[in-house]
Amino acid sequence: MVTVNHDNNHDNNHDNSERFLNTFIEIEQELKLIVGNDKFVPFYNLVSRASSKNKTVRAFEIYLKEYADLRNAIVHERINGEPIAEPHEKTVLHLEEILNTISSPPRIEEGFLGEVVTCTPYDPIGYAIKRMHHESFSQFPVYDNCKFVGLLTSETVTRWVAGKLSCGIGLIEEESVFEVLKFTENTDNHAFIDKKATLFEALSLFQEFNKKGKTLKAIIVTKSGKKNEFPVGIITVFDLPKLYHRVGLEISL
Fold first, then answer.
1. pLDDT of residue 84
2. I need a labelling partner for 167 at 20 to 30 A (CA). Which of 53, 156, 188, 231 fits?
3. Domains of the chain: which residue ranges?
4. Superfamily name and number for 125-247
5. pLDDT of 167 strictly over 80
6. Distances from the Cα of 193 to the Cαs of 14, 55, 93, 114, 214, in angstroms?
């Protein structure tokens, strides 16, 4: 919620108003760069257009429109030439944080890269299960050289085990990962992203899957976001608290 101070004597110099308005102008310029338009566009429309193109702006869309109302009150609603509202310090700081985030959003490569444990479709499932247990992983990206084959999850392994038991066939540790992948119930459980993408783009993928009633098990990070590039990082649902903390938002999936 936007907070204002209606006591104009609180700060005769109106420092907060000046900071607020200057920051607002800078945000407006950033939004124009995003939409590729330097002509006049009503701010509400500018925010909406930028939000459709930029996941970082979308995360702050509601705040920006609320702050536009406060900007209008400061600029247009005056008594004896003095603004009727003076934004509180925390309001100004929040707007400045939004500007900093939009102009320089946190990126995946700044904290979510690292060695990704993978397996091949030819590896015995026994090996993969032991690695999953030892490393406390719930999924494994499967690659045939640099070609992505699928995501081996603990749910898939469970269905494979159930299938073997229901048929009266003993478990075979030497069965290939490729054969076990055939028990995957939903293959649309992963996504790929460029290592230079923003954390907001990663969060939006989880949100988009959730809106479709699907579960995104893992976002596989590659050099340029292409499917058949070897992974340089992986983001799972267990990383969501860290993601939200890094971008300063509350979990809202």
1. 64
2. 188
3. 4-105, 125-247
4. CBS-domain (3.10.580.10)
5. no
6. 45, 14, 31, 14, 18
